[in-house]
Amino acid sequence: MTNMVLENLDQGLLTITMNRPDRRNALNPEMTQGLVAAARRATDDPQVRAVLLKGAGGTFCVGGDVKSMAAGRAPMTFDAKTANLRRGTPVRI
To answer: What is the pTM of this model?
Structure first.
């Protein structure tokens, strides 16, 4: 499997690339975790002066990977969906 999140630091600019061009960079749990980890590393690295987020293959990101979301999951209550969303979005500005 290819790395879903690529990072390149050049002269203070950290480029983070979502790398699922075959799925138009749709977000799945693994990519979301990779993006959060990359953002945390950027925060902790004093060499990072700016961050550029982009998508591979000519598409930025089509949003959530619906197939991944639906695969093998039972319907969730509203409260469970809210808790799940909050767990998946820990980055704050």
So the answer is: 0.75
